[in-house]
Amino acid sequence: MLQSLAGSSCVRLVERHRSAWYFGLLVLGYLLYLLFGAVVFSSVELPYEDLLRQELRKLKQRFVEEHQCLSEQQLESFLARVLQASNYGVSVLSNASGSWNWDFTSALFFASTVLSTTGYGHTVPLSDGGKAFCIIYSVIGIPFTLLFLTAVVQRVIVYVTRRPVLYFHIHWGFSKQIVAIIHAVILGFMTVSCFFFIPAIIFSVLEDDWNFLESFYFCFISLSTIGLGDYVPGEGYDQKFRELYKIGITCYLLLGLIAMLVVLETFCELHELKKFRKIFYVKKNKEEDQVHITEHDQLSFSSISDQKHEAENTSLKMTNETSLKHRQDTSNLMREKTRITKDLHLTLMAL
């Protein structure tokens, strides 16, 4: 008996705090996924980093041995300055002196990466004025960009998602949930093809040092707004039509970001995902619901009362207008009757 009571109380406790338990599992799962990523990245990339460090150490030692007129400290100072300039997007290579990082097209590309929060980091403001303006520009521009993207996605999704699903549901009689799932899968496949696979092929052809995997990696990192900056198109030393290429990349990033948001919104509107998300949300208390219901009833009662008073006032106004018109018509008839009687009397006297 006691065991059954204890079991039932535990079940009631779990049912009462189901959302909290699910949320705790969600947090735990996210932390485990974060740790899993750290372990995998560390185990995969650490050996390559160690090999690169050993290679650079050997190259540095060989250079110092071959150029004894240059001390190791002088070499360290020179390399530090070179790395600092490289971090600002300025290269010391002789064949890279012809490309500027702050011409109009490069500045346009930089502005688009700032507003979309991609931020490759390959080009950064050099002056204090540029850094201050970047802060002000971002504070205003990022919310403006979010508003712009939200408005665009809200309009696009009506024609791309909602109307096609509704059309097949009404005219063909298919289940709305099944049509929505199939449509989301097809839309996702088309987006991946048009904004990932095809651009990756194009980038692998236009960029000399990129293969297909690196090009696809750039597309994903860019359109997901991660923007690591290890691969940036249009930075080649012998890049042809560099200005036009930069403008095309800017348009690609903007359109790709809109397409990604449309796909995400389409999947978020799926009934199954809505139900799945709700298990992690905080449920409203009954008291809060009762307050909302009471407030809604009060608002409804007030609205009904206002409508009733307005109807009474309108009816009274119409009654007054009708009465006034009736009195005016009666007065006109009396005057007309008096005029006819007077004319008849004058006619009889003339006879």
Description:
It is a single chain. This protein has 351 residues and is an all-alpha fold. The chain has ten helices and no strands. Helix 4 packs parallel to helix 8, helix 5 packs across helix 6 and helix 5 (128-171) packs across helix 8 (242-268). The longest helix is centred in the C-terminal third of the chain and has 65 residues, at 286-350. It is elongated, with a radius of gyration of 38 Å. The chain starts with a helix and ends with a helix. Residues 296-305 have low confidence and may be disordered.
Quaternary state reads single chain
- Let me know the largest β-sheet: none
Radius of gyration: 38 Å
Shape: elongated
Q: Provide mean pLDDT, rounded.
A: 80
Helix content: over 70%
Per DSSP, the total helix count is 10
Structural class by SSE content: mainly alpha
**Euclidean distance between termini CA atoms:** 123 Å
Task: Tell me the series of helices and strands, N- to C-terminal.
Answer: HHHHHHHHHH
Identify low-pLDDT runs.
296-305
Strand content: under 5%
Transmembrane segments: 21-44, 135-157, 178-203, 215-232, 244-264
GO molecular function, one term: outward rectifier potassium channel activity
GO cellular component, one term: perikaryon
Catalytic activity: Cs(+)(in) = Cs(+)(out); chloride(in) = chloride(out); L-glutamate(out) = L-glutamate(in); Na(+)(in) = Na(+)(out)
